[in-house]
Amino acid sequence: MTTPRKVTSLDVAKRAGVSRSAVSRVFTPGASVSARTANKVREAADALGYRPNVLARAMLTGKSKIIGLVVAYLDNHFYPTMLELLSEALERQGYHVLVFMASHSASDIEDVVSQILDYQVDGLVLASVALSSDLADRCRASGVPVVLFNRMLETDGELAVVSDNRAGGRMAAEHLVQLGRTRIGHIAGWEGASTQRDREAGFMEGLRTASLGLFAREVGDFRLPRAQDAARRMFDTDTRPDAVFVANDYMAFGVMDVLRAEFGLSVPEDVAVIGFDDVPAAAWPAYALTTIRQDTQAMVAATVDALMAEIDGETFASPSPLPVTLVKRRSA
Amino acid sequence: MTTPRKVTSLDVAKRAGVSRSAVSRVFTPGASVSARTANKVREAADALGYRPNVLARAMLTGKSKIIGLVVAYLDNHFYPTMLELLSEALERQGYHVLVFMASHSASDIEDVVSQILDYQVDGLVLASVALSSDLADRCRASGVPVVLFNRMLETDGELAVVSDNRAGGRMAAEHLVQLGRTRIGHIAGWEGASTQRDREAGFMEGLRTASLGLFAREVGDFRLPRAQDAARRMFDTDTRPDAVFVANDYMAFGVMDVLRAEFGLSVPEDVAVIGFDDVPAAAWPAYALTTIRQDTQAMVAATVDALMAEIDGETFASPSPLPVTLVKRRSA
DNA sequence: CACTGTCTTGCAAACGCATGCAGGGGGAGA
DNA sequence: TCTCCCCCTGCATGCGTTTGCAAGACAGTG
Questions:
Q1: Residue B268, preceding peptide bond in cis (omega within 30° of 0)
Q2: Tell me, what's the pLDDT at B107?
Q3: For A70, phi and psi rounded to 5 degrees?
Q4: Is A186 in the same domain as A285?
Q5: A84 to B100: CB separation less than 8 angstroms, yes or no
Q6: Does the beta-carbon distance from B101 to A84 stay under 8 Å?
Q7: Which of A164, A165, B119, B220 is the most exposed place for a label (fewest CB within 10 A)?
């Protein structure tokens, strides 16, 4: 076992016949170094395999170049997609993503955030997670910018990037009534989520405009089994809905499955189904799910813009809700 | 804007009337501190909201408590699942996951690994990514244990955790012949992957045992569109296969879609389809995909065992390939 | 009471780097 | 050739910890 002694800037300096400072400057963009020493240093660095230690640098500058991401449901494909985009976008800016699972108890989110702060992250994005506002305060007290992704807080003032969920809900309703459906149900996600509330509010608006009421309502909590139970409850009845707006695609798949497999209903003939998100699988022919598309790309772009601005000390206002679009497929 | 000055161990020390060392020791399990000072310190720490700076600690101890994960396809649900499990398992050990996307060009994997090492990660897991062996050398030279997840290297000696892909391939073949299928095709993943080679090798073995040959073969590179093209090529012919083994579930979904939607074939009546992985969607009634299940749970468990052992300086032998199981659903 | 042994505790050095400050060297202009 | 100025460079300090070392406190024993 060879001793893997770390090669430090001092090693490079000695080999190049310069001082540590010179080495440091070579690796600090925008520092004043002559081309000659820069070359010597780079050469020595290559020979020794030297690369600056991000952690040490972080101590001095206070910038760790890492962004914490806390995420809850990785089984809903919306989030892996978001993670991929986010990570790539941040890498382009020289940042990287440290992942934290907020999987279960909503209370230990407290704990999770503490752990994150221990890593001196430069920023924090909370995806699909309820942030108590005093927690937000604590983060801001630590000087860590936090942006909520796909969630909003009552108490605004928090940086949040969201789609125009209300408009999306309205579009869903309009599409369904335009199709001539009248017995329209809704399967809700977790009711603590602003996303859910806005989507449903918009949906109700849309129905009301058409002088329709909600025919049935169940809640699926954004979880697959719960959504399926919700569907079972909703359709185990004499007069069934002829359309249902499901609060996200992930649940919609589960709902379509029980409609077809357990009730022998066909979509969209017997019942139209419309989802929300437009995750990749929505386009798969097996579901061909009509849905309200969130522009994930734009959402993460807005997220990193916000982060970068806040990190640079500028204060950044939450962008207005991002536009969504109805994508018609065969399920409605 | 309040100045968010960081609260350091010195602040706590002063408030508690002790030295920095005392504070440090309180937060270092197994250090020698009297109960009395421990209480004073903890009290002061709570009052000030002090938490040790992981980065500073990392500098001294050389342990950053972060594990780098480089991952390629997040659209294949196998990997988000794995990420979730891995992150949770590591959090339980006090580690966290720093994500790196190896998205595209296989060459910049070189670059990615360099970036990772800059963060002084304590370990590295490469999921579904081809590691050149000199790259592996460089990591080991830096003293960073690396474990390959779901991939093996020709030159063994690398730590790798894989399923028994060969056995899995064999099981797929056996199941298909047992079903009486005779014109059996294979849609391969990326041929650079050991996973692919092993699955196919096992599959061929299984066919050979039954005195059958491969009826058709196309490659889908583990990507959805490519897999669909592969399926089109394979079935746009007079005598079609009556069964196909697809190298992973993700591609299998795409294949089933084109078979049904474009060729009007029904699965499994016209053609039996069998996949590999058993991702959650495989259980969805729309696909009800018969598949070879990888025990993701066991795989990540083995991965963190390996990491922890190597970090503790023990050398750890690659575990033997983990058992897979055939899960029969309706597609075959 | 003196001595020894066991716990605690503080001191100071180290980890690897960035950066303000001041000094040195060289080029340009006269 | 001399002066001035600017560009480079080295020195030293600090970032927030951990940890070996040695000294202090205290109890127990003879």
A1: yes
A2: 61
A3: -110, 130
A4: yes
A5: no
A6: yes
A7: A164
